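Reading a protein record of the kind used here takes little practice once its layout is understood. Each number in the token line that follows is a code from a learned vocabulary of backbone shapes. One such record is shown here in full, so that the layout can be seen directly:
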Amino acid sequence: MQQNDIFSQFQKFLHETEGDFHILEQRVPVAVQKEYFELSSRLRKSPPRLREADCEKYLTQLRLPDTPAKQKKQLLSTLAVSMQAKAYGVLKQYVEECDPELSHWAYMALMESRMTLESELSDEKKIYISTGLGGEGQRLRFFILLISSSDAPFQTYQRQVIEREFAYFLSRENGKIERLTIREKHVELLVLLPLRTNLKYLLEKTIRECNQYGNFLSENITITNVKELNGDEIANILQMYGSHQAGS
């Protein structure tokens, strides 16, 4: 219930908020994002005033192999909040050459720097959206898990219905199916959908259409934009819903 409430609040925010949305396209683990924004928030309370020479000095320090990772994160975040055009250029350059373990942090710093500069140059409100699964352009990426309504394996015609109906209804919303995998008793979807799409309504409508051909899809839907669920996580969800169906 709590997760449903959070998702509903997120959808409500998207529908009611006006502004220029920017999506973090790269997949960045939520734990890394949380750490990044905590540091960024602290730095913004007293934004540094960097000169161009300072930015070059920071780049030199970032390139040194013996500079500790913690210090590099501090340097990257400082550049990001500095409102210095030169800092954006330094970050863009460093993103292309940084160590793999700092790639997520450097990418987020680059995005924040861009947003900061654009906000300074424009009267339009800039809104930055980041999720674990990222997105593409003005579309967010979601992982969706659907299950068989009777814990029975999908038949051939049911698989065809799922493929046809989801391709049709998602394309009508300017969505994109990146992966659709139909297992024995469940379906895994990785999709891109425009920001303000009412995803819950869209999925419920598509499931109803599929179920006109035999009521074979459960109305229990698992949606996340944090990460792709692994095999163990999916098995736990299937077991949970299976026990509910057995007890109903």
